[in-house]
Amino acid sequence: MKAKYKTLGLKKGASQEEIQEAYDRLSKELDPITNNNETFFVEQLAKVSAAYEALSQRSNLSTKEGDHFVEDHSKERSKKNKHKKDYDEHEIPVKELNWFLKLFTIGDKFSFRDFFDRAKKMFIEFMAIFFGVFLSLAVDQKREDSNHRDDNINNMKKLKVELQDILLYIDEHVGNLSIYHEFFMNQYYSWEEDSDSVFLIMYGEGEEAFAIAPLSLYEEVMPFDPPEVTYNSVQLDGTFRFLDDTLEHELTKIYSGSDLFFIKENAYKIDQSIVDDFVARISNKWVLDIGSTETQYNEFWFDNTEYIQKDYYMKNNLRRRLKNFDNVTGQLAEHRARVEGAQHLLDSILTAKEKEIEIIYWVVDLDFLKLE
Questions:
Q1: pLDDT tens, position by position, 196-212
Q2: Quick check: pTM over 0.70?
Q3: HEC states along 225-263?
Q4: Which domains does the chain have, with CATH numbers?
Q5: How far apart are the C-alpha atoms of 292 and 299, rounded to whole Å?
Q6: Cα 296 to Cα 286: distance, rounded to the nearest angstrom
Q7: Alpha-carbon dihedral angle through residues 105, 107, 113, 116, given to the nearest 10 degrees
Q8: Around Cβ 315, how many Cβ atoms within 10 Å?
């Protein structure tokens, strides 16, 4: 009987209340259901139940209920043993495996169930690492995009200033062309007038009067070379490709498009060739016929009026240059309109950027969030 008390962890002569408390405590600790139906717990619970029955002063009904409880757990133990037997039947000794399966073997036996459990665990760990790295890279990309956004805004502001400088340059160039065009146009239409001063234009009156020979300024050529420092620097630092696609297209046409090429061609190369023909005519013809050709002085044009009037090659040369001036002036008007269009586009993009709010690395367009 002493062994029964010991099984319940009690001293001999313990009261019925202590026996009941010990049994309740041990039955919970040794419950096979909460301990995966392991044989050890089933056997220990059976011993505890037997000791409790022997020491308990309960009725035979209580004893029968205890037997029923033990019987139920014995059935659970049988099921567990059967399951373990079925599981063991799926295990394969290492010596019976082929070389490929041996690569995945840990211990002296191989189990497909164990293999798939480990494979599932590895897959979950891989996905966790993959998405962790992916998220880290995504944050870095957002940081890079944020930096590009700041660079783009700064570049667009600088380009806006340069576009304004281009407009001022065009206006100045057109103004100079207008002055020369007026000089040479008056000379062309008065070419055959019967006057010794036909190649001179008089300004002022009295003692302040002075004369200018328009053709003495004929060798002046005005190349068209608008500012493009900011545009070139943006292209060199590699941030040009991050600009708005429409804006990038418009800026490319303004700074390096075919229209600008023809303006530069007409304003310098073609105009220079016309001037070269004028200079060559003087060198190859006038020098032989007149001798001295100091065209920078008014006296030359006054003394040689009749000779120059008869040289229709020079008059035609002047006509060609006036026509080229008209072409350049018209092309500059179209170019100016393109620059203004790009300037308005740039203003609209910058306005939209200024309305955006950047939260860490994410940009929120407030206009998009407005309810119509």
A1: 899 998 888 888 888 99
A2: no
A3: CCCCHHHHHHHHCCCHHHCCHHHHHHHHHHHHCHHHHHH
A4: 2-89 (1.10.287.110), 152-369 (no CATH)
A5: 11
A6: 15
A7: -40
A8: 16
